[in-house]
Amino acid sequence: MDSNNISNLDKFSWTTIQNGRVAKELDYSCFKYAGSGIPQEYYSFFRVNSENKSNEITIIYEDLSYNCKLKWARPKSPILRIFWDDNFTALLKSKFPHWEEIVPHQKLTNMKLIFSRTEESNVFLVDFDEVEKFVGWSEEELSSVLDAYLQMLNIDASGKKVQKQKIYKDLSTRFGRAEKSFEYAMQNFSYVFDQLGRNWLTGITPRKNVGSREIEIIDRLLQAKENSKEFFRATFETKVDELITRKFLEKPSGKKSPTKSVSVTSSYSRDENIVAWVLRESKGVCELCREKAPFEKPNGRFYLEVHHLKRLADGGSDTPENAIAICPNCHKELHFGQHRSMLLEKVYVNVKRLERE
After folding, report:
1. Which of 4, 73, 183, 258 could disulfide-link to 79, CB 3.0 to 4.6 Å?
2. pLDDT by residue (tens digit) across 137-170?
3. Other C-beta atoms lying within 10 Å of the C-beta of residue 79
4. Domain spanning 272-350 has what CATH number?
5. Is 56 helix (H, G, I), strand (E, B) or coil?
């Protein structure tokens, strides 16, 4: 059947929608087994060859390409399946993070993968419908998840064991969602903390490929919890990450007169005596990398920065036992580096005055 003649076709979990595009309603197998069967009525849309040979196709989402294969279930079989690569499966799971709540064989998940043809016979553009990660999640639910996350973070920081499964079970009982879905939600919170350069909850690894719309929700909730009106840095950094990953990124024109915004932040008073003592104790050498300070200030004094190992905002003390003098590079790495947990352990070992809080 020609693709022009399937405009009103609704076959199994496949539908043809406006502008000749095709939508696949995603089910459990799409996430678990990275693929789906294709009804015969859609073979022409995918330009399937008539010799029952497997085809390789490329699907493109936001300038990123993913490899797919159209494979027959067996030789001379009328059953055709599409399989996508692991990277695209990861993207799907990031767009629909609660996919494991889907029951096998469940229909009508309201999560759609949309295909559009291009002039190239083996290249298709894809998009998603209802990609909002927190669709169906109320403000009350997300606020409660954040409360639980912050509670666990404090327990973890004190060195005590966090009873994650009990907390997931309590949330599940309260809101009627699968326990696993709360763990996924918390991975998004870990991602925000990571973007902010803050310690995230041990064992709740930041989720990859989190969209800026979802991060903006978390940013707003976190600011409300901490009574802060700080610039939405996590949202901003996520948008930057999204742009960097695009295959084509044109030079922007920018703004000659940038928009001015005013933010109100809470800050903690710091004791200048502590800063002076820690800097003097360092003797101009970074207490992490052990290199000399990168430059001298106009007054001839070396430049190092004082960093609190446990943030004052997280209940850390403003004492010599919780502060180190470090160079700007090490300071940024302790906040945003991939291996900052290892660096933190290193500094505790090497600087004898420090005490864990």
Report:
1. 73
2. 777 888 899 999 999 998 988 888 899 999 999 9
3. 12
4. 1.10.30
5. strand
Residues in the chain: 357
**Residue type present at position 194:** D
- The per-residue DSSP string of 160-184 comes to PPP-HHHHHHHHHHHH---HHHHHH
Question: Distance (Å, rounded) from C-alpha 145 to C-alpha 125?
Answer: 35
CATH homologous superfamily of 3-129: DNA-binding pseudobarrel domain (2.40.330.10)
* Residue in the structure block whose two tokens are 């298709």: 124
Tokens of 338: 């991939």
Residue spans of the domains in the chain: they are 3-129, 139-244, 272-350
Query: What is the rounded CA–CA span in Å between residue 76 and residue 158?
Result: 63
Read off the tokens for 209: 């490929």
Cα atoms found within 13 Å of the Cα of residue 42, Cβ hemisphere only: 28
Phi, psi of 114 (to 5 degrees): -110, 130
The answer, as to whether pTM is greater than 0.85, is no
Give the residue among 37, 9, 35 at the shortest CA–CA distance from 22.
9
